[in-house]
Amino acid sequence: MAKTQGPKKGTKKQLSITLVRSFIGRPGKHKRVVAGLGLRKMNQTVIREDTPQTRGMVNKISHLLEVKEVS
After folding, report:
1. Rounded distance, CA 21 to CA 23, Å?
2. Measured between alpha carbons, how far is 50 from 40 in angstroms, rounded to an integer?
3. What span, in angstroms and rounded, lies between the C-alpha atoms of 34 and 19?
4. The pTM is what?
5. pLDDT (tens place) for every residue of the chain, 71 residues total
6. Would you identify the CATH topology of the domain 24-70?
7. Starting from the edge strand earliest in sequence, which strands make up the sheet with 14-19, in order?
8. What are phi and psi for residue 14, nearest 5 degrees?
């Protein structure tokens, strides 16, 4: 059986995540997710690797974020 070709090394997908809405007055879990992504201020952008864990965090607080895929 032949092995399937995965993505080439060094070409991992990344996400550009920007905090566009305030997390003030949000539940504590949302605040911890924002901190876990490394966001501290409004309009701050971070680059994170596109993993299932990161996607789950983004989905949890998608109403506060703007997300773009970066190659």
Report:
1. 7
2. 20
3. 8
4. 0.81
5. 556 665 566 678 999 999 999 999 999 999 999 999 999 999 999 999 999 999 999 999 999 999 999 98
6. Ribosomal Protein L30; Chain: A, (3.30.1390)
7. 45-49, 14-19, 65-70
8. -135, 155
